[in-house]
């Protein structure tokens, strides 16, 4: 069993890795789309720019109908503001999750048709962070940045140069 603080630190680490991966994107990559029905890299960045705070907010409010409203009012992400948008989102989720009591985390809620304790739904937000972090990494790698490695993906650091 992990503590609320350990959960927050883990989610923040995932967001920080996403921020690090954002530094590996250049302007020429933004229109990259793996296939016709998938997001472009810029669309993925825009999604990342709100999905964690949106998920936390909807979970706390218990109103999944608010998802689209919140998503549509999210800031537009650009290559230039991606890091600050992600940093602000991290600060928001820390504040909101920190404010939850143990009783609120244990409360069974309905989150997009799944009934479980609110803490489980918060954990799903963590799973989104891991999954979309991987997608971002793969987009960057597939778009020609072959210098990034597992160190970038799992630790958010550049691999030390080999001699």
Keywords:
single chain; 163 residues; mainly alpha; Four Helix Bundle (Hemerythrin (Met), subunit A); two-stranded antiparallel ribbon; 60% helix
Can you give a write-up of this model?
The structure is a single chain. The chain has helices spanning 4-22, 41-48, 51-61, 66-72, 82-98, 102-106, 118-142, 150-154, and strands spanning 108-111, 114-117. Helices cover 60% and strands 5% of the residues. The termini are far apart. A two-stranded antiparallel ribbon has the order 1-2. The mean pLDDT is 94. Helix 1 packs parallel to helix 7 (118-142), helix 3 packs antiparallel against helix 4 (66-72) and helix 3 (51-61) runs parallel beside helix 5. With 163 residues, the protein is mostly helical. The relative contact order is 0.20. A hairpin with a 2-residue loop joins strand 1 and strand 2 (114-117). The chain has a single domain (4-154), classed as Up-down Bundle (Four Helix Bundle (Hemerythrin (Met), subunit A)), CATH 1.20.120. The protein is globular.
């Amino acid at each position: 069993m992990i503590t609320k603080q350990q959960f927050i630190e883990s989610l923040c680490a995932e967001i920080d890795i996403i921020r690090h991966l954002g530094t590996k994107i250049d302007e020429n990559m933004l229109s990259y789309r793996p296939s016709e029905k998938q997001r472009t890299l810029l669309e993925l960045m825009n999604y990342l720019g709100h999905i964690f705070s949106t998920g936390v907010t909807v979970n706390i409010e218990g109103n999944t109908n608010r998802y689209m409203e919140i998503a549509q009012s999210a800031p537009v992400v650009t290559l230039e503001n991606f890091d600050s948008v992600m940093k602000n989102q991290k600060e928001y989720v820390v504040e909101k999750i920190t404010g939850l009591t143990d009783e609120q985390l244990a409360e069974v809620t309905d989150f997009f048709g799944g009934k479980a304790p609110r803490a489980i739904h918060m954990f799903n937000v963590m799973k989104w962070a891991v999954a979309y972090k991987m997608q971002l990494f793969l987009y960057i790698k597939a778009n020609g940045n072959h210098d990034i490695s597992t160190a970038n993906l799992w630790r958010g650091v550049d691999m030390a140069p080999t001699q």
